[in-house]
Amino acid sequence: MAAAxxxxxxxxxxxxxxxxxxxGYLFIMPVVLGLLIWTFGPMIASAYYSLTDYKIIGVPxxxxxxxxxxxxxxxxxxxxxxxxVRFGVMFVILSQIVGLxxxxxxxxxxxxxxxxxxxxxxxxxxxxxxxxxLWKYLYNKEYGPIDSVLQAFGLKPINWLGSPESALFAxxxxxxxASAVTTIIYVAGLQNIPEDLLDSAKIDGANAVRRFMHIxxxxxSPTIFFNVVTGIIGAFQFFVPAFIMTQGGPVKSxxxxxxxxxxKAFKWLEMGYASAMAWVLFAIIIVMTLMIFRSSPLWVxxxxxxxE
Length: 308
Fold this sequence. Notes:
MetI-like fold; two-stranded antiparallel ribbon; globular; 2 strands; 2 domains
């Protein structure tokens, strides 16, 4: 009882406590103000504008959920969402296959490996606008190098950006080329796989394919999970190449969701409708991300986790 009655001594604050606290808040204030002014502020404003009829040049008129109701009746909205989904499926699948394949090659013990890694890193430092202009030249049907190479091998040239059948896939190819971050992340994931696991499997008689499928892929599944999530988010935010290279054509075959949103906001000045589109896009990305997270226990394995 006597021991319980004894109160522990209170910790005395340092003489510089308030000075250090104020200094800490001053250091984080630019980031906090930046988030409040340039991120959360516009989000709150767009949430309000999505419930209004706002033409930018006029005063917002509150109309409730009418913008959302009109959105799902809009055939152009459905078409742009369909284009974005088809692009996302092709891009995510190809970028993971190509990225993992390149990463496997870039982790081999060969001479000049740093040079090859630098070459595959270059697309990251090329600005998106410059990359789009470069690929628009490469795809040119009259003097583009890609069609020139095809003709040199006796193949028929392809109207890459002028045909509805090939324009979307042409943008997928360009996006896969520019997704060097995926390769770099896979390289880091491969280097984190313990060599003793692969050596043990090799001693037990497992060939290269079996080691890759039963050791490398499971150990790499958290990295694959991360790349798939970020790939889907990036695919639904695709805009710059379509804006520069195709302007949504031909025949709206590359009329992406974000391009539709851009035109609604800045070409037709329907800011309220565009704000509703932005929130629907946000909801779609959140739902798809949550679906992937919910499915992750079925195929993502972490080190030390027992497999059934």
